[in-house]
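re: ur question from yesterday

yeah so i grabbed the chain u mentioned. its 551 aa long if i counted rite. heres the sequnce exactly as i have it in my notes:
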Amino acid sequence: MRKKISYVLSLLALLFVLPACQQQSDVEEATLDLSTQTLTFAKEASEQSLTVQTNKDSWSAVSPQEATWLTLTLEGNTLKVRAEANDQGRDRLGAIVVNAGGLQKRVTVRQSAADVVLTTDLDRVSFPVEGGAKKVAIQSNAEAKVELATETPWLKVSEVTKSGFTLTAQPNEGDAPRTVKVTITAGSLVKEVEVVQDGATQYMLPLQQFPASLIEVIRYERSRQCELIRSFQRGSAAIFRFTTPNKLFPLIEYEFEHERSKGYQATIQLCLDDKFVKNNPNFVGYLQTCGYKKSDKLTTEGKDVYVHNTLPLNLNVAFDSSGEALLETVYEPRQPRAYKTFSHLPMKQIHALNGDRSRQIHGATKDEVAKKEAEWKSELDTKDPRANRADYQRFIAKSSLDGESHRGYFYLQPSEDVPADDPYLNEVLTTQALFADITLGFWTDGLGRSYVTQEMTKLLADNGYNFLRVLNGGFVAYYNNTEKSAYVLHAAQLDGKPVLEIQTFRVDLPVGNGAGRLQAGKKENLLDRRARVIEAISARLKQTRQLQARR
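ran it thru and got these structure tokens back, copy pasting raw so excuse formatting
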């Protein structure tokens, strides 16, 4: 009986256990599978998807980066992930957590860095001799490292932040200026800022960069506390005059062919005391630090010429008895090879036909020119009506004197300054020759600009004609003070083909050779007198410029 009771109790216990086991077997374990656990995005904004497989009715996805650069969208069993564009100069890393029935899986998200950007508000920082502190602003999408290219005790870098840094210069107790570069590195980008400090003798030069646009010049001059006080036209050239805080060099002018030119073609600085630039070792040392070396070949009495070792710039330093000096920086492209030129100075025979009304020298009349041209077996160029006018005649050279194809003559005509009964009317005031081989006088650079060859320049110098200036329109002027004559070279066009044009005329410029030409008028400074010399030559070329414009 006791066994039966025990058996019954066992059956009852089993009945209680069986429902419990059945309930536990009804709870299914969660499953969660993802098509990928890594998403990689490019720097641009884009979207990618991954598939979520689970045995649960619902699932979720969250990311700590949802508030910044990731957006998550759940659609059925698909998770869409959108990454905004990365404007930072470094890769960024994120994560997504997918949850289904308490089971979680992690998706790693990576996005490539943007191209590194690195700019500064200043390319050059200038300190006075007393020293001081100046801030330089940085704009970068990556962490920037700032350091001196060469360690120096007089300049310190401090307060480096994401937005900039501070430079502190000690007083300069030496006569010469000093310079060092600051290197800023962000990613693979490197930028340099030049730091210059004046010496006790405060020399200064124009922006030593070529080409240097007008906006670059203005930005540079402002960085050293120079102020643009005047802009004007000199002929067709655009002139920009700055005042400087430098008592020795109070004025500096930049000359551009036009405001949109890629670079300036000349600068002029007025120095009030020539002892600081004439045979002064401190000045020579300063120029050497700036890349200039004195050229004994080009230096003449009254004018020292320094040539830059890398930039196509010459620095001409002219002196006169006033005690002032004029520093002229001129663009001088470097000739790539030697060129053949004339064996002797051309146009001597037709130059003799020129007159000079201001010095009471009569030129040849039209009849005398016609007689000479007949002797030289030439004929009037009747194909072009512009070549036979009251103020100009051009002849085809059947018998060449110096290799020219054409010879031209400009005649004095009545004007506001020349009365109708003037005894010099219809006399030659300028002669012209055209040569089919333009390389006798010019070479052309990669930009298509033409320049007088070294060989032609030497030929002119050997005959007493020294370089004066490149004038508006590309006319290159040379002047002989002894002969009181000018040779002007021009890369011209005739019948659509390039030709070498040479003009000659008599003109008595203000006194002296080289820098001495600049002396005239007690009330004028050298800067004003230099401008007057250029204007005198330009005035004589006015008729020719008009002719070239119509050709």
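noticed a couple things. Residues 117 and 510 are 55 Å apart (CA to CA). also The first strand starts at residue 32 and ends at 34.
anyway ttyl
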